[in-house]
Amino acid sequence: MQATTFKRTLLAASLIIALGAGYAKFGGPAISPAEALAAPVSAAPAALPRPGVTLPDFSAIVDSSGPAVVNISVTGSQKTAAAIDPNDPMFEFFRRFGVPTPQERGPARGMGSGFIVSPDGVILTNAHVVADADEVTVKLTNKREFKAKVVGLDKLTDVAVLRIDAGNLPALRLGDPARTRVGEWVVAIGSPFGFENSVTAGIVSAKSRSLASDSYVPFIQTDVAINPGNSGGPLLNLDGEVIGINSQIYSRSGGYQGVSFAIPIDVAMNIEQQLLKDGKVSHGRMGVTIQEVSQSLAESFGLKNTAGALVSSVEKGSPAAAAGLEPGDIILKLNDTTIGRSSELPPMVAALKPGTQVRLHVWRKGASRDLALSVGEIAAPRLASARGGDADKSRLGLALRPLSPEERRQVENPEGLLVENVSGPAARAGIRPGDIIVSLNGQAIREISQVRSLLDKAGRVVALLIERDKAKIFVPVEIG
Length: 480
Known about the structure:
The protein is α+β, with helices and mostly antiparallel strands. It has 4 domains: about 1-40; about 55-280, Thrombin, subunit H; about 285-380, Pdz3 Domain (Roll); about 395-480, Roll (Pdz3 Domain), CATH 2.30.42. It contains 12 helices and 28 strands. It has helices at about 1-25, 35-40, 60-65, 90-95, 125-130, 265-280, 295-300, 320-325, 345-350, 405-410, 425-430, 450-455; strands spanning about 70-80, 105-120, 120-125, 135-140, 145-155, 160-165, 175, 185-190, 200-210, 215-220, 235, 240-250, 260-265, 285, 290, 310-315, 330-335, 335-340, 355-365, 365-375, 375, 385, 400, 415-420, 435-440, 445, 460-470, 470-480. Strands 1-2-3-6-5-4 form a 6-stranded antiparallel beta barrel. The N and C termini lie far apart (about 110 Å). The relative contact order is 0.09. The model is unreliable at about 15-40 and about 380-395 (pLDDT under 50).
């Protein structure tokens, strides 16, 4: 057997030498016998160099960061329709005036996650976790429970700040989302479906994502498994630093499908500082509608690339109008920051303090120019609220205000009070926002102080005369 193998090897070598000699005869370089024996008959392509790949161990991150992650449970109330007997005198009122069926308040519960950012009990979570909550309970990993105060919340960025009466608490270290790279590992800790301190991991899928309903937040997109109950929990890097608040998922089924979004921690901390300092949140605005610059639009405007934000409309009387911005302008820079995509501009402006002076570098009709703009403010009542004693409104459950001059010209009773919000007894009686309270127990109502004074003297039921669509009717409200 060995002799046969040796003969075959010798025959192959002789053939290679002969072919090499023939190739040299016809002009090719000669191949020496030694080279012929060393060369393989057919060589496979060389493998590309590959760095060593190892999966990370997240246990150290969980050990150090887990105690600062909290479980949040909330209790409140939700509206359910109350049945009305057709023979009840109030039935005709609801039918005639098109009033929705009275609503009864039933118990509602919710859950979420949060994390401690200060040893003295300051906690961050999502606004949607605690919005409209009557009571918020925070549970630590050591099973201690605290009633939390909602310091304030900002619905625009979906950030809320809580405080508990405790000290020397474990707090998370904050990272820099700007240094986060797409593809790096990240960890989420939270309470999906109520399973406290559950850990999931994945990678950063993209940065500065703009969602249609949240254009003021440059979301961090990940493939970390996020489910109901994870909202408000931290997104951590491999250094154990929090870089975001897990906020949303993209799903067609209602559950996790591989696309999750987190609010960058620098955005959240800006909200936290404003709420702790001022009790409210201010967001900057310009007053423009913008769109992406496509390749064809860039060519039509004489631009070499698609960077920038194209102004499609300018609001009258807005800061942008005062600065001289026009439809068709392309904003290339805000101060010294280049606008790569139009979605980058709204979060940058929203993060500015109203009144800040900025410089816009714009492209207009084939030439660039600089414009000075004073940043305005997005209307605060729609964005931030600090819950306190005002949330109770009154024994009636009405939030009232005087009529504006324009509203007085449109109604028959200009001295009445306008219903802005309604809950409790008034909601159950069928009163709704937009109604005008004309009198209470026969006394004309002109000031909010009158309502409080009359309620102090009232019995179990009060009669409100309301105006709606230029028609009046008395509504009995049982206040107990």
